[in-house]
Amino acid sequence: MTLDKIELRVLEDEPSSNSHELASVLGVSSHQTVLNHLHQMDFVHKKPRQDPHELTEAQTKRRVEVCRQLLENPLDDRFWKRIVTSDKKWVYLVNHNRRKRWVLRGQDRFGKKVMICVWWNFEGVLHFELVPDGRAVNAELYCQPLDRVYDKLKAKYPTLFRWKRALFQQDNAKTTKKKFDDLDEVEVLLHPAYSSDAAPGVLRFEAGRMVLQSNPMLADRWQKIVEDDGLYFEE
């Protein structure tokens, strides 16, 4: 039996094996030899896909409905520059003391954390705020900073507001919908729940720095969601 066939049989039994483990099982001196064979057979080593949320049937249908509506927009450069989006993340405060310590069962071992909410557009961050300590981020609390975001956006992009062209990408929760009804000169660009893959970008923290990661080819992503019946798709 050839090495390729033996590798295939081992992978069928244990597909999560790494190249060092495979080399040991196969009696090969170099794990690089195993890697070369796997690459020649067009294998890649991937982590299992982790969906951000287990979607219900109603949520998948809603994702399709919203993405179809989004695709009806004029998908040109002017449209993308009108969009303001937002995200929120938990951030752990720096703790330089790395020694083990006694904590009550259930207590967070990583120390104090705060929630940061950020709003941005094609040029970068427009506004961010830390959520008051101990407060749950519900729609009501999320709406409170919108007046400040609105004021900053209006000062920086007066032409957008003159023509009522600013687009805030939001979900359709009653509280947020009412808040935007109260704000003049803006429109709401719908966003389905549990759909970071359908947003212009997501907020990440890398090495203590805030990073805004864009979702490339956003219109293609909306189309893919429609074609896949609202399910999450492989990146």
From TrEMBL:
GO molecular function, one term: nucleic acid binding
UniProt xrefs under Pfam families: Transposase_1
Domain of life the protein comes from: Eukaryota
Protein name: Transposase
